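Attaching the record inline, Q. Sequence:
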Amino acid sequence: MQGNVGSKIRDARKQQNITLRDLSERSGLSVSQLSKLENGKARLTVDIALMIAGVLHVPVASFLFSPKPGPQARRSITRAGSGILHEGNAMEFEVLCSDFRDKTNIFWRVTLRARSFEENGGWRSHSGEEFIHVLSGSLQLHTLHYDPTVLQPGDSILFDGEMQHAYMALGDEPVIMLMSNTVPRDGLPPGAGT
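Structure, as predicted:
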C-alpha cells in the first residue's frame, strides 16, 4: 500500500509542476524523506499525509485510501470496526465514511493511548481545520497559543490545524474521539466558494 500512496503523492506533485525540493521547502520535510515516501520506502503517517495534502491542495483522503470503482457515492456508511486503519504515535486512526470522492474533509474514529508529549510525537500542524468530539476518556489538548484544555466525554472543539497542537490521554483508559480534518483545495480556505 505504501508504494501506491507514494505514486499518488508523486502524481499530485508532478501535476502541479512542483519539484521535490519545492515540496520539501513548503512542507518542512526533507527531500530524502519525501523521496522515500514516493518510492514506498517510508511509511506515510496521518500527520505527514495531512501536511503534504495541505501543501498540494488535494484532499488527504486521496493519499489514505482508494475510492471504490463505480458511480460517485451520494452517501457513505462505515460499519463498526470496518474502517481503514492507520497507526501513528500511540494513536490509531480508523477512516470513516470514505466512499465520497474528491471530498475536502476526512472523518476518523481515533483511539489515543499517548500519555505524554513525547509519546505522542510532539507538536503537529497541518492545513485546514480540525474538529474533535470526545466519546470516552479524558483528552488533554495542548495548542501553541492557548493554555492546555481538558475535554471530557461529550465535549467538542474546533481549531485551526495550522496552529501547533498535541494530544494526551489523562488517566488509565485511552481516549476515543471522533475527529474531522478539512484540507483546503485550490488554495482556498475551508468553506470558501460554498
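Confidence is low (pLDDT under 50) at residues 186-194. The longest helix spans residues 2-15.

More tomorrow.
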